[in-house]
Structures are given as C-alpha cells and as structure tokens.
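Objective 1.3, modelling of assemblies. Example input:
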Amino acid sequence: MYSLKQNKLLLLGLCLPATLIVAIFIIFPIANGVYMSFTDASPLRPTSKFVGFENYRYLFADDVYWQVLGNTIFIIGFATILAMLISVCLALLLNNTIRFSGLYRSLIFQTWVVPWIVIAILWGWIFNTDYGLVNGTLAQYGLIESQIDWLFNGKYAQWAIILCFAWRSIPFLMVIMLAALQGVPGEVLDAAEVDGAKYWQKTFKVTLPLIQNISLAAALMQAVRMFQEMTLPFVLTEGGPMNATMVLSMYSYNLAFDSWDFALAATVGSLWLVMLVLFGAIYLKTVVREM
Amino acid sequence: MFIKNIVSKVLVGSVLLGQAGIVYADNIKVSGWHQLFDFSKPAILMAEKKYEAKNAGTDLIMVDTAFGQALQQATVSTIAGNPSDVIQLVAGWVPAMAEIGGLRALDNLFTQEEINSIPKTSRDALTWEGELVAVPWNPGPILMHYNRNLMKEAGLDPDSPPATWPELKEAIMAICKLPERNGGSVYGIALRTSQNPNSAQWSIPIVYGHGGDIQVDNVPAVNNESVSDALNWIAEIVNSNCSPVGFGFAETRTLFAQERAGFIFEGPWGRGLVKNMSDGKLTVEPKGDVWVAQMPAAPDGTVKTIGNPIVATVSSKSKNPELAVDFLRTVLFDKEITDEFFTSSGLLPSSSMDILGSGLVGADAYAQLFVDALPFTYDTPIKSSKFNMILGELAIGMQEVISGANSNDVLTKVDEKIKSKLKR
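Predicted structure (tokens):
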C-alpha cells in the first residue's frame, strides 16, 4: 500500500505552503511582538534597543493597566456567561418543534452577520440619554424621573458594553448549541422518558451534560474573540468614562498609536497572550470533561 | 509554448502602451480624505485635471484614506518605506510625522512669496526644528457659534454675543433655563466631554480664556491654575445640566442643529454642518438663526483660539518632491480651484491670505470672521509628537473633575502620567 511517508519530498512539498503561511502570518508576528516587548521600539526612534524587563516593570507599576485588565475580565466574563445562558435557552426552545422555528433561527442569526460597527452605533442609540429606547421605556413606565446617562456612569457603561457583547455573541453560540442538541441521540432521551423523566429532568440530567463540552468550547472561542474586539468600547464609550470601559485591545491600540509606544503595546499584547494561553489550558483541563 | 505565448503578448502590449503614451514617466500619489466626500470631490477632480495638464506625463494617483485612519496609515507606510508623495493630515499630527522623519522641508520648494502669503502663526505652528514641514490647506480656527433664536428667547441680545468668559457663562445659564423642545432639554452650550483627545483639545480655548496655556516653551504643562480654572468652569456648567455629559463631536453637533444648545465651538465647517444637520431649517447668517463670533476675551483682553486645520505635507521619501509640491501649489493658489472648493465645501480653501481676502471668500462675511481670527489661532497648541496621548490624559482628567474630583489633585496626577509617558 502506498504511504505518503515513503515519499518524503512530496510530504514536505504538501506541508510547506501551509507551514509557510502559519510561520509568516502567525508565528512571526507573535514572536516579533514578544521580542518588541523587550525593546524600546517606537516609530519616533530610528533604532530600538534591548531593555530587558523594563516594559513589564513599567506596566506592572501602572495603575491604569490593572484597571484595564480588571475591566476586560469583568466585561468579557459577564458577557460570555450572559450570552451562554440566553443561547442555551434559545437553542432549547428552537430545538423543540415550535412553529416557524426555522424562521426564528434565521432571524436570530442575522445579528451575527451585522458588522460590529453597526451594532455599536445601534446600541449607542439604544442607550442615548435623550432619545434612547432604554430611557424612553423606563420613563414611559414611570421607573425613572430624569434621564440616566448610561454611557457616562462607569458602572452602567460597563453593563451597557456587556449587553452589547452578549447580544452579538448569542447567535453564534446558539447555532453551535443547536447543532449539539440535534446530535443528542434520541434513544438516550427515549430511555430517560421510559424511566419516568420529565422535560426538565431530561434537560438538566441528560441533554445539557451531553452538550456540555461543545458548549464550553464554544464559550471559550467566543470569549477569546471578544478579547480581540475593540469596536464596541471604541465607538460607544471611547473607553470612558475615566477608563471604566477601557479593554486590553483598545488600551494597546492607544499605546501604539496615541503614545507611539510600540514596545509597551507589544508588552500588553504579550501578557495578554500568556494570560489567554494559561486560561485556555486551565479551562480545558478543569472544565471540559473527559467523555 | 504557452508561456512563450504569454511573454510575447506582454512584451508587445508594453511596447504599444508605451507608444500610446499610456505608460507615465512619473506618478504622484496623494493620500487623504478630501476625495471621499461629495462636497470636496469636484474641486479635487478639477485640481487633478489641471495638474495633469500642466505636468504632462505625470499621473496623479489619489489614495483614498479615511480620516480616522489617516495618521496610522501615514506612519505605517512611512516606516515601511512606501508612503504617498503628498499626505493630507491635520495640524496636530504634524509633530508625530515630523519626528519619525516622515516629512520634507517645504521652505525651498515653495517661493518666498508663496510662503509669505501664509499667516505667520500658521507657519510657526507647522515649523518643526526650524523647517516648514506642512502648509495649511483648509485653515480651521475654532470660533463661537451661537443660536440667535435661543438667545432672544432667553432675553439676551443676539446682536451682542458674549465677549468675555463670565458673560458667556451668564448667557449659557440663561439659555439652559429654557423649556424642553425637540424631545429633550435645552443646554446652554454643547461642550465636548467624551474620553477622547479631541474633547481635551476643544477645552484649550477655555484655558486661553482663563489667561493661561497648556504648554510652556513647547513643553506640555497642564498642571497650572488656568487649566484648573478651565476644568472647573466646564464641570460647573456640565453639573448644572447646562451642557451634556460625555458627548463627543458628533453628539454635540446634533444637539446644536436641533436648536437644543445655545453655543458650540466649531471651525469654518460649522455653517455646512448646521445647514445639513438641520435639513436646511436653520440659516447661518448675521441676522439668521445661527451666527458666529470671535471667542470671548481673556481677563487681560486678549483673544486666542485653537485651529484644527487640514494640512498638506510632502513625504520625506517622495522621489519627486518638486512635482508633489506643484500639486499643493495647484490646490492652494489656483483661483478657479479654490473658488470651486469654497463653493462646494464651504471650507476655507487655502492658507494664502491673497486668496482668502479676495473673490468669493473675500465677499463672504462668515468666512471673513475666520480669516480675521487667523493671526491669533494656534494650530498646534501642544507641539509634541505625543499630542494625542497628552490630550487623552487630559480628557480623562476633565471627566474626573466633572465627576467631582478636586481639579488640582487630578491635574497633578495627569501631569505625572504625561511626564512618565513622554520620558519613554
């Protein structure tokens, strides 16, 4: 039987294009970023020099960095949890044979194809102090006496960003979970029913445990995606008020292009990379179960 | 055989194109955002035609660059060694581009007469280490626009707009007592207070109005009494609900166009914005709905403002700086083009005082108020390559003062942060 292993040249030739692409577009930028974090790289200097851990020391002593890190974890953590909860509910609902479930699925998925910038503008209007849907509705039912500045109060602004992130993530998570639900073997559910399990018992004791790994992996992917995203805070609050909604992605962007401090921006990126890798490893090790 | 065929076809094609004169001897790339807008496109197209007719064999290539990405693109392309020949910027970005060595000195590329026609304050602002590295394309002094209807309604005389900062504050407080309209409250003034460098930039005329500055000998110095007074002035107005909180440029403009703010600080683009955003309902005329006045005077009687002009630069890496400058010469000094630019965009079309004082611009009362302001307009109120960083820190400080923090404590902290980042 012919095996590719016998023709080492062909094997190399087949692997080379993909390896080159990964090396040039993924490994090199990461390695270069990590290297830059040990230099004083800035476009304002003709050359850069090695500075050891100086950038890391600077960053650890900077209270804004810790604030931004805290904001990022808070915003993305809650947005992911919220998105997961709503997505599971929607997926369970649409997995049942309710009327027009196909239409609902398509409608919910529309949110996924809307660009981030459009969502940011849309939510900006929803939270607008004067004309926003939120203030309008609350005022209509007499729940508030004066308009609330949702995007200028630090705590409210963080929750506004959490809601936007969650809203944008729901369709993706819902589709993944719907696919996972449809993969749950009917025989297992039938067996539970024969044993006398009711709908909620079947859901909590059989269905959800069976789709747990897929859902948790999807949540991780979505959280990582949100870590990279800066459009929402950039457009909605510009990181304010007083850095309350400043997240790591926007912080490193500002360091690079407002302070022209490529080295410090690369340091933020490197720490963020290490943090995500560690988090991902621990998460997969502890939360995702062996089947 | 196949390859041979293709090679021969390419060779023949090249020869024919060369014969037909389609292969250009030179090309000049111009990057910017003017060509992206319908209101400035006609003048740019006219300039392109005239320029190519004047410089036969030169192809002018317009590189569309969104305003928000212009500085990053200019920087990255300069570092990568492939910038456009002519780069459109705003004045505040010039120090950063100059410090990375991205801009070419223009002193010897323009004639002395051409350079002298540009106001001295504008030239000084765009001079870096003794060399003129940019020229204002569309000067942009920031002046006080006011709603005459709201002033009348509040019992103020719209023909005598506030001339000092205390007078302005009184007028703001009076207008802000007016009843709600167009779905919301009426504010005395629409100040920018979002967490954006631009909001801090717009607070600099208020610092000037309190008798101070935010730099000393070209070194940023934000921790002083005038900046503190200016931030407290802003905070008092915002906390009296006489200016919205956390608004940026877009929201403040909407508010003003809805007749829900008595005053706003804007450049010569203000007239077009008010007309467009109010769907033509508001007129910008001396006796119309909205008019413009010089900024109020500081306690010592001096009037000073900032400018936010669109400037044109030539890249230090341009292989044809003479040809590049000739494009600037065309757009800045050709009467037909500047008239077209002014007619279609309403912006001041040139930095040449000869152009600004004659023809269509010279006959326009609104434009002339801005031209009058040019001698006391500071286009680079902080001459630093880290302009955005400094103003970004100040914007956060401004928000903290609005939220009730002590201005002196805030400014001490802001000053430390700025110094620490400038050292890096």
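Residues 63-95 of chain A form the longest helix (33 residues).
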